[in-house]
């Protein structure tokens, strides 16, 4: 009897450990979600070139989709007018093809990380609407045509709408008005009719922002211009946004006739001076109180952080019919931009793999969610 009791105890412990997040050698996020949605990550240059060996192995095992963290942004692809630099992007696309991944181009039109020449003439004055249209068309056509049939989807326009639903007063908007968005999608569609085309932004659960983005989707569709998805950047914290707000946005965008891409996801465990903004120009000076966990997360905070991830993935599974892709904004904590945003020099823990390239227990728990009835 004692042997039986002991055996039952071992079995119970084994099951409990499995439920708690132990990942077997055969388990992976890629295999777990393959019939639900793509699971992706953003790749840095050291990963693209294979010098960050351990994280590359994680990417190949765990993810079915990749997006370039920086090398496909316009300032890197076309630093001077008419002079394109494709070495890094070519390497990135080749990696994705070799590993049979769903490749995302990020991003074609964005007000930030844009070369200075894009909006000005030789005298430094704003170019005309016609000149800007031609520059947009040339950039989009050159990039999308180069990777036609290889890059499967593009963030065509990035971060054009403010939280109050108004248009960001970028140079694109100042020179072309609202029409710069349909033009960008039109040029991308013409360059590769089979590539998926997305609008991508942060805080897309704010009610007024939802209304404007939905209006853009419907406008494009009414004009016969393709838009396949809305990318919901998911730079979130432990408290914001509320899951109910996030869920309403998913349902709303799906009702407008597009898929939802969960993009740029990470969950910061650190305090933020302003919630979950991802505006790269928003930075604050370092303060020690904003960097409280340099030696690691306390157990209570770690538990809260894990539960937050699990809540989001439960939501993704609930709406898997509406979701095309879930992409993490990086692979390991060491890679994350959140170490330097919005406060430079902090120690954050926002991703699924730690600074030593080890799988965090939450990965096993996420996998286990798919086995729950």
TrEMBL record:
GO terms for molecular function: endo-1,4-beta-xylanase activity. The lineage of its organism: Bacteria, Pseudomonadati, Bacteroidota, Flavobacteriia, Flavobacteriales. Its EC number is 3.2.1.8. The keyword Metal-binding does not apply. It catalyses: Endohydrolysis of (1->4)-beta-D-xylosidic linkages in xylans. The keyword Hydrolase applies. Residues 23-369 form the GH10 domain. This is Beta-xylanase. PANTHER family: ENDO-1,4-BETA-XYLANASE A, GLYCOSYL HYDROLASE. Keywords: Carbohydrate metabolism, Glycosidase, Hydrolase, Polysaccharide degradation, Signal, Xylan degradation. Belongs to the glycosyl hydrolase 10 (cellulase F) family. It comes from Chryseobacterium soldanellicola. Pfam families: Glyco_hydro_10. Residues 1-20 form the signal peptide. GO terms for biological process: xylan catabolic process. It comes from the Bacteria. InterPro entries: GH (IPR017853), GH10 (IPR044846), GH10_dom (IPR001000). SUPFAM superfamilies: (Trans)glycosidases (SSF51445).
């Amino acid at each position: 009897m004692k042997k039986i009791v002991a055996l039952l105890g071992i079995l119970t412990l084994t099951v409990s450990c499995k439920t708690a997040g132990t990942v077997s050698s055969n388990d992976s996020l890629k295999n777990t979600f393959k019939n639900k949605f793509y699971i992706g990550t953003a790749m840095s240059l050291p990963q693209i070139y294979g010098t960050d060996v351990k994280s590359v192995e994680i990417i190949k095992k765990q993810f079915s989709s990749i997006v370039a963290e920086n090398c496909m942004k316009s300032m890197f692809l076309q630093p001077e007018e008419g002079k394109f630099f494709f070495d890094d992007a070519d390497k990135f696309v080749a990696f994705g093809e070799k590993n049979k991944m769903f490749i995302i181009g990020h991003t074609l039109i964005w007000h930030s990380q844009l070369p200075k020449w894009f909006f000005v003439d030789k005298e430094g004055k704003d170019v005309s609407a016609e000149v800007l249209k031609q520059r947009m068309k040339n950039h989009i056509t050159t990039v999308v045509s180069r990777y036609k049939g290889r890059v499967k989807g593009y963030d065509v326009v990035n971060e054009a709408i403010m939280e109050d639903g108004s248009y960001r007063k970028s140079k694109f908007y100042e020179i072309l008005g609202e029409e710069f968005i349909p033009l960008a999608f039109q040029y991308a569609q013409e360059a590769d009719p089979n590539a998926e085309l997305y609008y991508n932004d942060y805080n897309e659960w704010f009610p007024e922002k939802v209304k404007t983005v939905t209006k853009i989707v419907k406008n494009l569709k009414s004009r016969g211009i393709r838009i396949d998805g809305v990318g919901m950047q998911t730079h979130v914290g432990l408290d914001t946004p509320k899951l109910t707000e996030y869920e309403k946005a998913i349902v709303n965008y799906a009702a407008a006739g597009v898929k939802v891409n969960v993009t740029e996801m990470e969950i910061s465990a650190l305090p933020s001076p302003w919630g979950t903004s991802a505006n790269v120009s928003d930075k604050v000076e370092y303060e020690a109180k904003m960097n409280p966990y340099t030696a690691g997360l306390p157990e209570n905070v770690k538990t809260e952080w894990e539960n937050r991830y699990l809540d989001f993935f439960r939501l993704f599974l609930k709406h898997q019919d509406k979701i095309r892709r879930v992409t993490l904004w990086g692979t390991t904590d060491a890679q994350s931009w959140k170490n330097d945003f919005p406060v430079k020099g902090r120690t954050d823990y926002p991703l699924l793999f730690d600074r030593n390239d080890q799988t965090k227990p939450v990965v096993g728990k996420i996998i286990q969610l798919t086995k729950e009835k």
